[in-house]
Amino acid sequence: MYYGGGWGLLGMLVMTVGMVLFWVLVVVAIIALVRYLQRTGRADSGSTRAEEVLAERFARGEIDEEEYRRRLETLTERRRRA
Q: 28 by DSSP, 3-state: which?
């Protein structure tokens, strides 16, 4: 039988390697995207929104330093336990 002078076994090998490389690249791209999105979703300082609100209230003079430190300690304890 004549198959049109194709690549034969070498062609199958090239296609197999190409397909494996393609899927490896797809998986690596997905992992890189997930890591990037996780990294950009965090605040650089590691502070939470609750700590930011607390700092704003202290800056405006709504709470004194003692209350600020007490509440900040409570927030950091909860974050350590989580």
A: helix
